[in-house]
Each structure stands twice: as structure tokens, then as C-alpha cells.
Amino acid sequence: MKQETALNILKSGKNVFITGSAGTGKTYLLNQYIQYLKERRIYPTIVAPTGISASHLKGQTIHSFFALGIRDTVVDNAYIGKLLEKKYLINRFSKLQLLIIDEVSMVSPEIFDSMDKILRAFKNSSEPFGGVQVVISGDFFQLPPVSKEFKEKRFAWQSPAWKELDLKSCYLQEKFRQDDNRLVQILDEIRLGSVSESSHALLESCFYKKLNSKFNPTKLYTHNVDVDRINLEELNKLKGKPYTFKYSSNGSEKNIEKIFKTALVLEELTLKKGAIVIFIKNNTEKKYVNGTTGVVIGFDGETPIVQTTSGKKIRVLTEDWTIENDKGKTIATVSQIPLRLAWAITIHKSQGMTLDSAQIDLSKTFEVGQGYVALSRLKSIDGLRLMGINEMALRVEPLTLRIDEPIKKASLKATKEIESYSKKELKKSHSNYIKSLGGLLSLVLIEEERKLLRTGK
């Protein structure tokens, strides 16, 4: 399915599941949809299973929004009864009209069912998710839910609530990240559960390959302990003067803490000339994205100057990470230099990034999907240097293989349905949807709102 088709389905107010391989623009599509809604004064609630995944769309964690604490089991009636006594939750859920759930591959069926049960209770409705419109995004070939024990049912799509939502599937297939057919073939074969001999040979040719790069590209590891050790060791090797950047903030302590839990931004960042760094924010004006790598070539006063892998020199100024309330107003801000040390990062933290080149160690892969996520960060196989690989690295979950084809067929059906609409019918469908949510229909008012959003007011 093309992005334009998927956006038309989203604008029609259906419950939707957006999926597709890595690099097909799932997050980009959601951002377009969210922008469309905000311009009409409709403010969706965006949640994701982890802080890092939530930060991609300026959302919050599922556990935080649904007041789940640290539980990973389905909530019972007694727990829901306690939640129903809390005024702030009554206020929160009474306003909820549209829920966007991102990175659903990491959401367990227990957590998915808990969201459903809580919303049914607060909305006093027997409809799935209490009648709230639900938009879900993610790729089940990527990182699965964390589990300490074996479970027969481990994915959100195995939840009874998933089936009841009657989701329209949008399987995006046009790739925007990869421009190398050889890498695309490897990734597609991993998704099919059968990597060919020629692809294995191509990966083997990348073992300790010398990369055409001005500096050592980022290393991706499966474990935090390797990442922390390497970054500290490499920074200490540099002899220059250290520059330390501390964050500034505005808002309540509780909300500031949320930002640090849900984003890659650091409270304190120490850099030296020669440090390998990675950008952790998107900035179209300065032409860097979350995942752009480079080296610190100096400082202008206290401002770091980074030369990216493409040769572009960037004077790196502070960026803002924010939390918005239900009406889209900013209630907390953290300002900091949008960089992290990047001699090494974890595969988990790399999800959502686009890398020109990387040195990847898959020798300690312990979970299906890790190899796929790591390799799919790259634009081309030319940018890959493998440092190790084990049997688990190229595996995918058999259950995911089983449902992939039915999802594709459902997406084809949804495409045919939306394309059967005339332009007039489609426009009416979009207008009715905005009207049902109490949004703006006047083109003049929409344009005014668009201008306000651009200025951040």
C-alpha cells in the first residue's frame, strides 16, 4: 500500500493497523496524520511500550498513561476499581477520543488487553477500547515484547481485543531508507524466514571489512555493558579539553523526569575534539536526522562543531524535548545538545534510526528480530562491517511469519475499498470524521491553526 492510500484510510476515521518493513515510513506517515489532526484542533493521545519508542512521536509510555505501574499481567477488576476512584484518570480518559499505539511489536497481549479493559470501564462501554478510535503502528518482525519466561501468546495480535477492533490493515511496501537492492534482498529474505546462500555469502564478505569512512562508524551491540565500556574507553583516549553540557528545563520536576525516561537526551554530555557522536533529533533545516553520525572537529566558544559522514559541518545548538497536555500545549521542556557519544550504541536504542554505516556485533544476539533491526538501520550493504554473528541473529518469530501474508491480503482489500470511493465521497468521509471529533472544518481557521503550530504556540 502507498502512503497516500493509507493516509486516506486514516482520515476516514477507521481503526487502523499500519505496518511494513523497516524504512517504509511508518513514523513519517503517523506524523503526517498527527499534523493533519492538530491543524483541525484534534489532539490524539500517543503511547508506546518504551520511553525511546514513545519519544519518536512525542508520546508517553503505555504504563504511564494507563497507570499500570510495573505490572505485566492483565489488570483485574479490583485494580480497575481502584483506578476508577482517581479523579485525574477520570478526567484523562473522559477526554480520550483517539489513541495511537506505536511500536506495537513490543506490546504484550496482556498489556494490550489491559488497555482495552481500562477504557471499557472508564467509558462505561462494551465496545473494544471503550469505543475510542485506535490507530496501531509497528512491525512484528522487529523487537518483540520483553518476557522473562516462555509464553505461547506473546504478541498483541493474539489478544482478543485486537480481533474485536476490526482493524483496517495498511501494509506499506515502498522503501525509503534502503537504496541498495542487495541489502533489501537480505532483509526481505529474513522476513520470509529463509536467507539464501548468496545472502549469507554477502554478509560473510562484510566480516571486519574496511569501510570507506573518514572515521570509525558506530558500533551496534546487543548489550548495554559493551556500549558503556567502549564509549568511556574511547572518550578517555582523547587528549583534548573536555566540554560538559548540562541540560536546562522548564516545567514540573515530574514532567522533566518523564522526558528523560522517554527520550535519548542526556542530563549531562561530555565531549572532546575527535569524539564520535550521533544526532538524536530530527532537524530538517540543518539537515540532520535521528541517526546522523559524525565527529566533533572543534568548538566555537562552547558550541560543538560536528562534521557528518557526508562531510557537512554543523554548528550544533541546543534542541528542545517537550511534553504536551491534552490540548497540545507544551507543559515541560528540556533543552540540551542533541548528541550522544556514538563509538557504540545498543541495537535497542538504534530502532528508528537511519545510519550511513555501522559496525555490528551480532555474536551475542539473544532475541529474534535483533539482527533484522540492526541490519535495517543501514541504507546500503556497503556501509556494513560485521564483527560477529550467531545462529539467532537472522531468525524471526515463526508466529510472525504465519500472519504476514494474511495482513498483506487484508491490506490489499483495504486498498480496493478506499480506491472505490469517488473524490467527492472521500472528501465527505474525511469531513464527517473531523466533524465527529469536534474539529475545525473552516479552511481559514485551519490555516490560522497551521501558522500557530509552525511557531510552536
Name its key features.
Rossmann fold; 37% helix
Instruction: Give the integer mean of the pLDDT values.
Output: 88
How many helical elements? 17
What does the radius of gyration come to? 22 Å
Strand line-up across the major sheet: 3-2-4-5-1-6
Q: Characterize the main sheet.
A: 6 strands, parallel
Helix content: 25-40%
* Total E-strand runs: 20
C-alpha geometry: globular
- Strand share of the residues? 15-25%
Oligomer: single chain
Domain module count:
2
Distance between the termini: 35 Å
Unreliable stretches: none
What does this entry look like structurally?
- The chain is α/β, with parallel strands linked by helices and 457 residues long.
- It is built from 17 helices and 20 strands.
- It has two domains: 3-175 and 421-455, Rossmann fold; 181-389, no CATH class.
- The chain has helices at residues 3-10, 26-38, 51-55, 62-65, 77-83, 87-95, 109-123, 160-164, 181-192, 197-204, 224-237, 253-262, 347-350, 370-375, 398-419, 423-436, 443-455, and strands at residues 16-20, 45-48, 60-61, 98-101, 133-137, 168-172, 219-221, 243-246, 248-250, 268-271, 276-279, 293-300, 303-308, 313-315, 319-324, 330-336, 339-341, 344-346, 358-362, 384-389.
- Helix 1 (3-10) crosses helix 15.
- The longest helix has 22 residues, at 398-419.
- The protein is globular, with a radius of gyration of 22 Å.
